[in-house]
Description:
Layout: H1 2-11, H2 13-24, H3 27-43, H4 57-76, H5 82-89, H6 98-116, H7 120-130, H8 136-143, H9 147-164, H10 169-172
Helix pairs in contact: 2-3, 2-4, 3-4, 7-9, 8-9
Amino acid sequence: MSSTLRARMVARYVELRSKLERIVGSRDDAADAMQETWLRLSTTSSSTSDGGTVNNADAYLLRMAANIATDQYRQNNVLLVHGEIDELMHIVDEVSDPERIASARSDVQALSQVLGRMPRRRREILVAARVEGQLNDEIARRFDVSLSTVEKELRAALEFCKQHLPDVEAAQRGRFAGPRKY
């Protein structure tokens, strides 16, 4: 029986995975569950099966894969035990450290002053890229300039920030191309 189910799984893999994807809500989880289903069918020998027949092979395979996905989800989402909760309760919150808050406010104020000294277009391009998350080609269309102009303005703006904000860590590690808009 397992060889028949394996053959059916190969023939209907894409449809079964697609249905399972809708059930579990994740393409990766569905693919993992389908792979595990295949492995379980491959390791089940016909001598260990009860010799019964399956009326609807697709439904059987889908239910088997859904059960595997459920088991994997439960395994990956184990709740914390009381000892772990106690440990987490005693972790110091570094974000609310008054020194860090004061330092961050000082950095923002210094950045604001430096931005005020930049040429208007350069500042607006930097804000569009780093604050609004726009991509370079979107900025180029918005300001009606070439892509290379946007890149040059960004590079100049970041260099200006590095020069005028030597004590601000964020300015010193600024990159010319960073993660923007997923």
